[in-house]
Amino acid sequence: MGSPKFAADVLSGILDKHQVVCVVTQPDTLAGRGHQIHMSAVKEFAIEHKIPVLQPTKISNEVQLLSEYQADIIVTCAFGQILKQSILDATPNGVINVHGSLLPHYRGAAPVQWAVINGDKTTGVTILKTELGLDSGPIIYSLPMKISSGATAGEVLQAMTPIAIQALLYALKQIEQGTAQFVPQDNNLATIAPMLNKNMAKIDWRRNVTDLVNFVRGLNPWPMAYFILNNEPIKVYRATALNDVQTEPGLVVRCDARNGLIVGCGEGALQIDELQIPGKKVMSGRDFCNGRNLLSMVLE
Fold it and tell me: How high is the mean pLDDT of the chain?
């Protein structure tokens, strides 16, 4: 059970070792100006590899349909639906989850993104037994990994994929052999990584520059940090901290083809390296400033 590319990549990594009898993913959506049908990455992969696909609005209402596949175990990875007890009990070995943090830290929908936003240097993958609580089940296996300096959340997820596959294959082997250890989490150490949304993505120039660089990294590739210019949202893809520049928050202190776009923060200044105007391709800050005179303007 999964939906995004990360889940599809993890699925790809276990096909050589295990028979996947069915894939469950989110229903198709309509996207783009032409309202084209958009399939999840997991569905696209399943079709390519001739794996049966289920797309119920609520999988917990489809216990009977799921049981017809006679699976030994269910694996979830960024699925996007809450599972009821009837699903947790639908297979002999229950449900295990591939989670992108070292639990009990960062329970929730966006563990990788929040680790990046918070400036963490390390993260990891945890394989846990799923229960009704939010990522609170016992840990079967976990593997740590470093977060590369400057990496976006999308890049961290990409680097995490082989580690997630390794951890999942190990856990499945232990379960199959009957040697898996299920270690309870310390709930006192739990932290939450709530789902991201577009409403949180606007840059607050009053924050210090280090926090803003991490904010930009953590919201890439979605929902993307942005600022307002001429009533239009300008998405920021990459940025660099300039700690030796101090000026008014939001004030444009440089905007030219040599220095690019540099904006004051609560502490330091943000050099915007890559950005995107609505309807245009991603461009460098220097190209953006070419022909624009934003010097001394205060950005929203």
Answer: 96
